[in-house]
TrEMBL record:
Protein name: Uncharacterized protein
Organism lineage string: Archaea, Methanobacteriati, Methanobacteriota, Stenosarchaea group, Halobacteria
Tree of life domain: Archaea
C-alpha cells in the first residue's frame, strides 16, 4: 500500500498521480511554473500566452490539464479585480507544495550534483 492510500490522508494515490501527470509534460510544467513565479496573485491566459510565446488556445489546453490534475485552479471571482477580462489562475495549495518541495527541490539537487 502506498503511504497516500491511507484513509486518513486528504489525497488519494490517484490524485497524486494525476497531478504528477499534469506537470509531467514540459509545456504544462512551463505554464505551471510561470503561474507559480508570476509576480501577481493570479494570471490570465492572455498574459501566459504573451509571456510564453504560445497561442491562447495552446495555453488554455495546458491550463485545463493542470486544473484537471489539481495543480492550478481558477481564482474565486470575489478575489479578482473586476477590470480583469477573463478568469485568472493560481496554483492550488497542493500545486504550490508540489513545486516548492518537489520540482524545485529536484532542480536544486541536480544543480548541486553537477557542481560536484
Amino acid at each position: 500500500m502506498l503511504p497516500i492510500d491511507d484513509t486518513e490522508t486528504l489525497l488519494s494515490a490517484e490524485d497524486v498521480v494525476d497531478a504528477i501527470d499534469a506537470i509531467g509534460d514540459r509545456d504544462r510544467l512551463e505554464v505551471a511554473y510561470t503561474v507559480y513565479d508570476h509576480p501577481a496573485e493570479g494570471v490570465t491566459v492572455p498574459e501566459l500566452a504573451a509571456e510564453l510565446g504560445a497561442t491562447e488556445a495552446e495555453i488554455q489546453d495546458r491550463i485545463d490539464a493542470l486544473v484537471d490534475g489539481g495543480v492550478v485552479a481558477e481564482r474565486m471571482a470575489c478575489l479578482v479585480d473586476c477590470s480583469i477580462d477573463g478568469p485568472q489562475y493560481e496554483l492550488t495549495q497542493f500545486g504550490r507544495l508540489l513545486f516548492e518541495e518537489g520540482v524545485l527541490s529536484l532542480f536544486d539537487a541536480a544543480s548541486a550534483v553537477s557542481e560536484l
